[in-house]
Predict the structure of Transcriptional regulator, LacI family.
Amino acid sequence: MGNSRITVREIARLAGVSVATVSRVSNGTGQVSADLRQRVLDAIELHGYRPDHLGRALAARRHGALGLVFPGLSGPYFSELIQGFESEAVPARASVHILCTHLREDSDAQVLEMARRVDGIAVMGGTISEETLLRLADLVPVVVLAGPGRDSVPSVGVDNTTAMERLTRHLLVEHGLRDLVFVGTPEGSPDVSQRWSGFLAAHRELGLTPPTEPVRVSMQQPDGVLAADQLLRDRRPPEAIVCANDEVALGALVGALGRGLRVPQDLVITGFDDAPMAALVSPPLTTVRQPVRELAAEAARLILRAADAPGAPAPDSIVLPTELVVRRSCGCSTSTPTGGTGK
């Protein structure tokens, strides 16, 4: 019967070899000299060592570290992603290395360099070129987070198109609004691109003509203030501002209220993500709830499994469900989820 108390490190010490050598012998992988192999086998036999699942997993990983590649770190969205990723990495005894690509001309090269120091990487969609993504996948397990996968590279995300289509239909059908504007920059962001597509699709399915262009801004709260200023300065307010995320929506809310407009009486504002502040502002923000922490946690699980089983087939991509949450910023009198989308 195996001794569950003795560890791989103790076997390595008793045999006078490295932990990696014990792992190679116990798993039957890699090159080990006959003399070292026999020393390890003797120590295993003498002390009844039996490697557990975690021990095998740790031995399979070379660095005990996972990588996260983001465009930047500002705002609650990235904080939630990091917490979700760490919720899986820390129990697996893996540290987390974070690389931000914003304004870095050498971002592709830096990501490839990171692959030398980690056992797998989660890459935010749109942060590196497709060519680099595929090169990266030849070096370590890779998962695309909140973006489309490529070939053998799986992804973890939500159905942004269907979710935004549902929110937009709510405004067009349930509230009878017609003059809607979309705030966000589709170029360079798979999430925003899909949300813009859903916004357009909802109009077209109802036989309505959508705006020809979005109001292009970045994804932070000050950008929402700027968007509101742009939209409200020289024209009558649109009926609704549909924002690509909650941070922009919160900024737009500040900008609208600062100009003396009432939300939702004079102007409807909606977001996407259901960040913690969305329910706390006045009026509370109608938005789409996506499981941000679970997105990153699922990505970490896929990477850990792949790192612990080299050569296994690439896993399938994962689409997590979303939920439309209607609150008073769209004109609804109650605040409640109205159903989910996704798989």
